[in-house]
Amino acid sequence: MVGGTNKSTNPVLAQVRSCVKRLAPTVENEPLGRIDGEFYWRCCHPNVGRRLDDLRSALPRSLARDPNAAAHQLTRELNDLYQKYQLSQSTALDYITGRSELTLRGWSIYRSLEDDGYAMFPADLLWVKIGDPNWTGERVEQVVREWWVERPWWLGGANNWDSSSLEAFAVAPYVDSLGGETARWSPAPCISPGPRFELRGEETPQYEHPANSWIEVDPATGRLHLIRGNVAPPFIEMTVDIALSPHGHIAEVYNRQVCGARKWTNQLAGLPTRQKPRTALRTWVIALLIGSGMSLSEWP
Question: pTM for the full model?
Fold first, then answer.
C-alpha cells in the first residue's frame, strides 16, 4: 500500500509507466515539448489523454462516413478541450491525425489578405502564434512554410510578387512589445518589411475566442486543416508576408531578436531549458511519483 492506495492499482503510477514505455526507446531524440506533453496531458490530466486517444482511433471511421460532419464534430471537441484545459487545437489535431506526437504547447496560423498599414501594397499576411519557449527560429520557419505549402485550396495562393527580388535588400524586422520598442524598417524599394513580432500577455484580442476557430476538410486531398486556432497566453505573435520572406530569414530574425536580444521566450509558460531529454524524463517521473505519495524505492 502506498499513501493508502495499492501500488498495483495506483492510476498515476500506471500512467507514468505508460509514458516511460513510450518515450524511453527514443528519448535522446525526443524534443522537450513532446516529453512535457506526454506527461502533462496523460498524467496531470489523464482524461485529456484518453479523450485524444479515443478521437484518434475513431477518426478514420468518422471521415469515411461523412468527412464534413467529422470535421464539425472534431471542431466542437477540440474547442471544448481548449476552453477547459487550454490545449491548443493544433496540438490536439496534429496528434489525432497522426501528424505528430502529443506535445505541451501549440501554435496557430491564420492567413489574411489585407493592408497591414506598413506595406506599400496590400500584404498577404500570415498571423502566427508561438507558445513553446523551446522553439528555435528554424522550428518556427519549418512549421510556417509547411503550413503554407499544405494550405487548403480555399486559402488561395500567395500574391504575385517575386520573393527572389527581396534577396538584394536587407529586410529588417519590426519588433515591438507592450512597452513599445523602436521599429526598424527595411530600405526602399522593399514591398513589405520582414517578420514582425509582438509579445502577447493575458490580454488578447477578441478573435482569440475558440468560436472563431474551426476545422475544414480539403476536398482535393482529404486532409483536415485548422482555421485560425488558439494558443493560451502568453505567446509570441508574428506577422509575415510569407511570399516575400526569403528562406531562412524568419529563423534568423527569430533567433536574433526574439530569443536573443529581447529574450521573450523567457516570458512564455515553461521557461526555455537546456535540459537533456533523459533528464527531463527522470524529472517528470520523480515529481509525479512523489506527488502521488510514493517513495523512489517503490518505483519498479
Answer: 0.79
